[in-house]
C-alpha cells in the first residue's frame, strides 16, 4: 500500500488500506479529515507506525511532486467553483429533507403563525420561511470524504527513502513501538497524556488505554524526582499505568511507576 508523505504528514487515503491497517495490522493513526463532528479520511500515521509498516514490507512511502508546486489561479478557481456547487447541492438536499420532516406538522405551524400575527398566512409562505431558515455556508458545508488523493495529484509519484522518517523519531521509539505491537497491543500517540505512546489491550474503539509509555533515550541519564512524581501522578489521575521504556542492546526494558496515597 502507499503512504502519502506531504507537508511532513504521512497519510493514508484509501478506505481499503485503512480497513486493512486497522483489522490486520492494528495500526490506528489519527484522523485528519473532518465532516462536521464526524472524523473522516485521510488518516495521519506516526513515524513509528510508518517505519514499522515499511520494515514489514507492507507499505512504501511516496510523494506527489505536483503537490510541491505552488497552486495556480486556475486551481483556486476550480476549488471555488467546487465549493459553490457543493453548497447548492447540499442546500437542495437539505430543503427536500426538511420538507418531509415538516409535512406532518405544517398545518399546526400555520395555525400558530396566524394566531401570532392575527392575520391569515398561506401554507406555502410558511413552508418557504421554514425551509430558508438554514443556509449552507462555508462554515457548515459537509465536505465529501477523500478516499484517494485529488485528481490533480494522481498519477506521477516518487518513492521517499525511509531515512526521511528516521529524522522524525528515534531508534528507541521505533523499537518500543515494535516490541509493544509484537506483544499483541494496539499502540497510538500518547502526547495528549504526556507520553510517547498509549497502549490498548484491544481496538481503541472498544477499549480504554491501559498504559502511558514514555521513552527514555539515555537510561544512564538521571531523571529528576519531580519528573517521576509528575508522570506517576498523571497516570493515576487518568486511570492508566505510567511506564518508562528504555533500550539496551536492542532489548526493551519497562519500568512501571505506581502512585500510592498513604
Automatic annotation (TrEMBL):
Its EC number is 4.6.1.16. It comes from the Eukaryota. One of its GO terms (molecular function) is nucleic acid binding. Residues 2-63 form the TSEN34 N-terminal domain. One of its GO terms (biological process) is tRNA-type intron splice site recognition and cleavage. InterPro entries: tRNA_endonuc-like_dom_sf (IPR011856), tRNA_intron_Endo_cat-like_sf (IPR036167), tRNA_intron_Endonuc_cat-like (IPR006677), TSEN34 (IPR016690), TSEN34_N (IPR059049). The active site is at 200, 208, 240. SUPFAM superfamilies: tRNA-intron endonuclease catalytic domain-like (SSF53032). GO terms for cellular component: tRNA-intron endonuclease complex. Belongs to the tRNA-intron endonuclease family. This is tRNA-splicing endonuclease subunit Sen34. The lineage of its organism: Eukaryota, Metazoa, Ecdysozoa, Arthropoda, Hexapoda.
Amino acid at each position: 500500500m502507499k503512504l502519502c508523505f506531504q507537508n511532513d504528514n504521512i497519510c493514508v487515503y484509501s478506505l481499503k488500506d485503512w480497513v486493512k491497517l486497522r483489522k490486520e495490522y492494528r495500526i490506528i493513526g489519527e484522523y485528519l479529515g473532518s465532516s462536521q463532528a464526524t472524523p473522516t479520511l485521510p488518516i495521519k500515521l506516526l513515524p513509528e507506525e510508518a517505519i514499522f509498516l515499511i520494515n514489514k514490507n507492507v507499505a512504501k512511502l511516496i510523494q506527489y511532486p505536483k503537490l510541491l508546486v505552488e497552486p495556480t489561479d486556475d486551481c483556486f478557481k476550480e476549488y471555488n467553483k467546487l465549493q459553490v456547487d457543493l453548497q447548492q447541492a447540499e442546500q437542495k438536499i437539505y430543503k427536500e429533507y426538511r420538507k418531509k420532516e415538516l409535512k406532518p406538522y405544517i398545518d399546526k405551524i400555520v395555525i400558530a403563525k396566524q394566531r401570532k400575527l392575527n392575520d391569515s398566512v398561506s401554507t406555502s409562505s410558511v413552508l418557504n420561511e421554514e425551509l430558508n431558515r438554514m443556509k449552507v455556508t462555508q462554515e457548515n458545508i459537509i465536505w465529501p470524504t477523500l478516499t484517494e488523493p485529488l485528481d490533480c495529484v494522481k498519477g506521477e509519484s516518487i518513492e521517499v527513502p525511509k531515512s526521511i522518517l528516521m529524522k522524525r523519531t528515534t531508534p528507541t521509539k521505533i523499537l518500543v513501538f515494535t516490541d509493544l505491537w509484537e506483544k499483541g497491543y494496539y499502540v497510538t500517540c500518547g502526547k495528549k497524556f504526556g507520553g510517547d505512546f498509549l497502549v490498548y489491550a484491544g481496538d481503541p474503539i472498544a477499549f480504554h488505554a491501559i498504559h502511558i509509555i514514555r521513552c527514555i533515550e539515555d537510561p544512564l541519564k538521571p531523571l529528576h524526582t519531580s519528573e517521576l512524581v509528575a508522570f506517576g501522578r498523571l497516570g493515576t489521575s487518568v486511570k492508566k499505568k505510567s511506564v518508562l521504556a528504555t533500550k539496551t542492546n536492542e532489548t526493551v526494558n519497562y519500568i512501571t511507576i505506581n502512585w500510592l496515597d498513604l
